[in-house]
Amino acid sequence: MSGSLFIIFLLILGGLISTLGDLLGSKIGKARFSILKLRPKKTAILITILTGSLISASSLFLVILVNRQLRVGLFRLGDLQKRLQESKQVLIPLKEEREKLENKIKAKEIEFKQLEKNVIALRSGKFVIRSGQSLIISEITSSNSEDIKYQIEKIIINANRYAHNLVKPKSKDIRNLLLLRKNHIEEMQNTILKGGNWVINIKSVRNVLMGENFVYAFPEITENKIIVRKGEKITKGDFKQDDFNKKDFSDKLNFLLSSSLAEMKRRGSLTNEIKLRRDSVKELKNFLNKNDKTNFELEVVSLFNSKTAQPVVVELNINYPES
Questions:
Q1: Using CB atoms within 10 A as the burial measure, which of 88, 199, 249, 267 is most buried?
Q2: Where do the domains of the chain lie?
Q3: What are 89-105's pLDDT values in tens digits?
């Protein structure tokens, strides 16, 4: 039954019951009928009251009979309130978990957008500093706490100047772009205080575009030791008649030098290139012009003692294979 029809039905029912009660009260009053030893007038009033109560009771009964929500609300309200409270208690940690997940999703979206931006920038070659790139490599040695602190501050200032020139080359006012964690700096100081020779290598944490306001970096500290000694043979390679065309020979020579650099890196060198003695290539060309059909062995030999942060300078020695 719809709500409007139900209301009309209640109104008609109430009118009928009230009319019936009024007629009954009038007849009882005229008949001077008495209930419970009451006077006829009071008996008529009692009948009217009972009739009104009957109207209310029948209306409520019909409403409860027809309307399930009211029926549940009247008889199960306390139980529902208790269950609702329990549900709210259960929902609290779920809401917190939802908020955490939403925050993670937002963070991932930001990270994805930044990654997408970085990929576009990488393809277009707009990065001025790349992730892991060294901003400064400097030797440091001291046993005095204040002196160590001063040297580290100076190294950081120079690294910041270098980064600033790359990121904001048009700005003459050098701002502090370089950001390092305080505990990393303290760990460096404590390590150097133990004594010995050390190398500080400050590297960029991530790719940096031109014009950005911050360069996040972290310091690496490495023992400053001799990586290669003067006269030491680093690598060698055999060259035969088949290698004497220009392309093959150049590829094999580059591979030999790359192998030498890889060996230096394996030992702990921070250098990014192998420097050839100026006349080495010229001497090699002269040799090839005179001996284009000769098999020989080419050695990469260190010219100086080179420490962790120092460049590795080499020359090329030609040896004939033993017959």
A1: 199
A2: 3-66, 128-224, 227-319
A3: 777 887 888 888 888 88
